[in-house]
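Re: that chain you flagged

S.,

Sorry for the slow reply, it's been a week of failed gels. I finally had a moment to sit down with the sequence you sent. For the record, here it is as I used it:
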Amino acid sequence: VSISACLSTQPGGIAFRQMQRECIMADPNWNNGDYYEGPYPLDGLRLARQAGTITYRSGPEWQTRFGRKRVNDKLAIGENFEIESYIRHQGRKWATSGAFDPNSLIWMSTAMDAFSLEKKDEHGKQCIRKGVQGIQQPALVIGVQTDVLFPCWQQREVADALREAGNSHVSYYELDSLYGHDTFLLDTV
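Prediction finished late last night. Pasting the structure tokens below so you have them in one place:
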């Protein structure tokens, strides 16, 4: 079963994760990754989570939950709308929970960016078909229509590549859910 995944990481996902890494690395407390005996890069981790939250959820969900509901009648920088409060809260909550080490996020996301199922073909060129030809067991590929991190076209690409490599037992399904990439964590049947 493949849910909201890809054959190889695409530029959009790489860009989102690079933005998260930059948030952490721009924090002076990151200290080139050597912060374990000094101040913790809390602000960088908080901002990275805020950026990540934008990619894990969806605009349609936020339209339904928040719309343009205001938290302030006066115009103030970053303190006008409920969505701003939500994003700030998510960043603060995650960064202060101790659930994730900033260097771990940097290296894990870097590894995710390098991911590809491609293998070299007989001409020495990277080839998706060659990479998936050994996957012949039944496969269920699921995409989420509101996923901005791994859009549905990437799930269709997975299903198509498996079929093109000779797998005749591939099913593809798209979920119509408001929750974006987090659908597999939040939505119930």
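What I noticed first: Residues 121 and 127 are 6 Å apart (CA to CA).

Talk soon,
D.
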